[in-house]
Amino acid sequence: MIEEKNLRAHIEHLTKKPRVPHSEGYFAAQKYIIETLQAQNWEVKIHSFKDLRMGVCKNIYVESGDSSAPARLVGGHYESCKQSGVAADDNASAVAVLLELARELKNSNQAFTLVFFDIEENFGIGPLRGSKAFAPYYKRPIDYAVIMDLVGGSLTPTLENAYFQFGEALPTLTGEDLEFFHLPIKFVEPLGRLGARSDYDAFRVQGIPFTFLSSGTPWYYHTPYDTPEILRFEKMTKFTKALHRHLLENSSSSKNPAPWNRFRSFMSKLAECPELKTPHLEKMKTIEGEPSRWQLLRLHWDVLTRIKKQGPALWKNN
Q1: Angstrom distance (rounded) from CA 244 to CA 287
Q2: What's the count of helices (H) and strands (E) in the chain, helices before strands?
Q3: Kindly report the CA angle at 175 between 149 and 243, in degrees rounded to 5?
Q4: Which of 8, 69, 180, 221 could lock onto 217 through a cystine, CB 3.0 to 4.6 A?
Q5: What 3-state class would DSSP assign to 203?
Q6: What b-and-e string marks burial along 261-294, b requiring 16 or more CB atoms within 10 Å of the CB?
Q7: In whole angstroms, what is the distance from residue 111 CA to residue 97 CA?
Q8: Coil, helix or strand for 145?
Q9: Looking at per-residue confidence, does 259 or 22 come out higher?
């Protein structure tokens, strides 16, 4: 049974120190992930790769089911960038969820590959380097890939129970008291693949259907304020249960791109915060069909800049 106390315990261990590559906290996180998986009776495998800037790095993974059967890959990165402190949401939250999923999926007959990626953050020569090394290395057929990044918070007070879902691998998720905004990947990538946001891109390049899940990049994103106190553990627990259920229910990828029919309702949710209202946001609330990349880029700039500027005050005022 998926329990909140287990998620809290994982976060407590993972956030004792920052997990910047080759730091004490980084090696402690590797040790904790490996030992937790071993205690769940998984055979832990290590994909070591040499990064041009960071040296030897490690993706950690486990596999279940028939080795010849296409696996459902679920992953998230475990390291942190320097400016994020202990990086509770980015991305200890996804690691905690993945470890809890691992415990529940161990006895499933379904074929799964669970991956804890290294070097997702940008350390001087571009991000996503762990998954880019793993995708061509991994030879087992993959049915679809589900990637999590920042799954423990909320973007705004009006989106406290919301998650964002991008990509075609899973139909729109459902969960107790949760709302999933399933939007086209273009929404989060107004600059195209140049702006890929997480480790899903390495699998997209190989033509593998993917789903990217996140609760958004709130005011504390990439700041030292990303601490365990900021996480919404009840929400994380409900999310873990919802994802677990969908992973077991769906026999194959849907391969149906998300439509834009949730876009206007998402814009309306944002506009419920007076501090975020701009003429551009009001215009986007009424748009019919697919917005242009320029419209999306301006929306990101307007809204995310205001969220950062407001900080925790945004929550006190709503």
Answers
A1: 35
A2: 11, 8
A3: 45
A4: 221
A5: helix
A6: ebbeebbebbbebeebbbeebeebbeeeeebeee
A7: 18
A8: strand
A9: 22
Q: Say whether 34 sits in a helix, a strand or coil.
A: helix
Tokens standing for 137? 């290395």
Distance CA 267, CA 281 (A): 7
Q: What is the 3-state secondary structure (H, E, C) of 74-108?
A: EEEECCCCHHHCCCHHHHHHHHHHHHHHHHHHCCC
DSSP 242-280: HHHHHHHH-SS-------STTHHHHHHHHHTSGGG--HH
The letter for the amino acid at 84 is: S
pTM exceeds 0.90 for this model: yes
Q: Is the pLDDT of residue 250 over 80?
A: no
From 82, 98, 78, select the one nearest 2 (Cα to Cα): 98
Query: How distant, in Å, are the alpha carbons of 58, 172, 210, 211 from that of 160?
Result: 34, 18, 25, 21
Closest by alpha carbon to 19, among 109, 104, 95?
A: 95
Handedness of CA 107, 108, 112, 115 (dihedral sign): negative
List pLDDT tens digits, range 293-312: 999 999 999 999 999 999 99
Q: Give 130-151 pLDDT, tens digit per residue.
A: 999 999 999 999 999 999 999 9
Residue 258 has pLDDT above 90, yes or no: no
Q: Which one, of 90, 93, 124, lies nearest residue 222 by Cα?
A: 90
Please give the Cα distance from 47 to 271 (Å, whole number).
Answer: 45
Query: How far is the C-alpha of 85 from the C-alpha of 309, rounded, in Å?
Result: 19
